[in-house]
Amino acid sequence: MSVEALQAVLADIALDADVSAFRDDPIAFAAARGLNPGDARALQRWQRRLLTYRALVRFALSDPLPDCFPISKILLDREDQWEACVAAFLDARRIQSPYYRHIHPHFVEWIAETGWGTDRFPWLLSLAHFEFMELDVLRAPEDASDPGLAQAPAPERRVRFSASVRNLAYPWRVHEATEAEPLPAEGLALILCHRLADGRYRQQELDGPQSALLTRLMDQEPLGPAAEAVGLSFGEAAAFLEELQAEGAVLGYA
Question: Which of 39, 190, 233, 240 could in theory staple to 35 by disulfide, Cβ–Cβ 3.0 to 4.6 A?
């Protein structure tokens, strides 16, 4: 039996949502996975320790989630579904990285790809994604200095944004959800998130033209045509960008 096969069996013990087969009959559990009799007996001999190993692994992988998704947890706990959600996530084996920092985005990606719970909780993906954004923004790479950038907007220039900028749109008012009033109302939310120069997280709600302008500018459309396309004058667009520049979201113009 290869090391990889044994590792796969240990992963089954640690991550399968239902571990009753191993708990009830470790020999049969091992045989069903092709382990030789010697390895099967070893699993039986160390069953108690392996179940402790399972508990420790599951705790290590799930413990970071509530801090990043506190409001999602509150809402799912109301329906006794948070533990079921986490168990399904672990059972899906989506964590393929040795780094804890990847657990949070893998969790959001798993909800997006599987649609877990979204028939019953249609706000879940939007809320979880938005809750992750603060961590994502704060982890964004530091912006390199570029002395070649102009510091004043001009119609023909393209805007250089901070790596921390996120221009977001949700069908739920997720930014208004709080731990006291966690359920987001249905309705369009256009939100800009970025990191301030002092390292703090900043978010603000945008109107439709502002959000559409940023979408075009982040696709490297020149400022003048982008402003005209969304119904803003150059002066209106420039004033908006100068506010963002003062906060560190805009680095300059090329």
Answer: 39
Strands 250-253 and 201-205: unpaired
Contact assessment for residue 197 and residue 247, using Cβ atoms and an 8 Å cutoff: yes
CA atoms 230, 232, 237, 238: torsion sign:
positive
- Give me the amino acid identity at 253: Y
148 in Cβ contact with 162 (< 8 Å):
no
**What digits encode the pLDDT tens for the residues 26-53?**
889 888 888 888 888 888 989 999 999 9
pLDDT of residue 198: 92
- The count of C-alpha atoms lying within 13 angstroms of the C-alpha of 225, restricted to the half-sphere facing its C-beta, is 9
Do residues 47 and 65 lie in contact, with contact meaning Cβ atoms separated by under 8 Å? Answer: no
Long-range contacts of 74-78 (CB under 8 A, 24+ apart): 74/179, 74/182, 75/121, 75/123, 75/124, 75/127, 75/182, 75/183, 76/117, 76/121, 76/124
Share of the chain above pLDDT 90, in %: 78
pLDDT at 2 over 80: no
Query: Over 80: is that where the pLDDT of 204 sits?
Result: yes
pLDDT of residue 85: 98
> Smallest Cα–Cα separation from 138: which of 207, 201, 197, 63?
201
Residue 237: φ, ψ to 5°: -65, -40
